[in-house]
Amino acid sequence: MDTPGYTALTRQSGLMREMQVVANNIANISTSGFRREGVVFSEYVTRLEGEPSLSMAHGNARHIDLGQAGLSQTGGIFDLGLQGEGFFLIAAPEGERLTRAGSFSPNAEGVLVNPDGYALLDAGGAPVPAPLGAGPVSIASDGTMSADGQPIAQIGVWRPVDPLSLRHQAGTLFAADDIEPAEGAVIRQGFLEDSNVEPVSEIARMITVQRAYELGQKFLDAEDQRQRNVIQTLGR
To answer: For residues 62 and 144, what is the distance between their CA atoms, to the nearest angstrom?
Structure first.
């Protein structure tokens, strides 16, 4: 395969990755706390002897959209929606993870956990106790949780020190190299944050990527046929 073929293949590979990311976004339109992702393309250019420069595209990085999504009221005592910058901190088996998905419930050990059973951490990095059998539970906008009017914990809100270090792990969980307390975030008890995926724009993007991939495939097919014709002509 000559230079145009290799160039087209690198573009096709990147478009395939982007299609996978877009499909995952669409699949999570209704997932609470989901953050939309996009693919970032880089370009590699090198000079060739006696030929034009070679340019290759590589979709090797993902961009996470941290834009605020709407809040849906659920009325759940331990359903928490975030407004503003920041994440809840979760104790996952692989280490501490960040999430905007705020659906929690008490477990048998008396701590608040997410649907996967991972403990929610407070402002000091310790599991948040669940006030089992206590009176009315309220959670203030700064994360202070009270039972019977007495404060018992403060739910932490964190952010990555370097936003570019944020990496999508699985579902609604993210990893970061270093984290710090987030300032100005508001916690809303009885609410859950929606996915920040815009269905119409995401479907439009899928169509655009699909058409670009089809055009690239047509080019590869035409290039393959051109080379076959050259070989047949030289073979006569």
So the answer is: 35
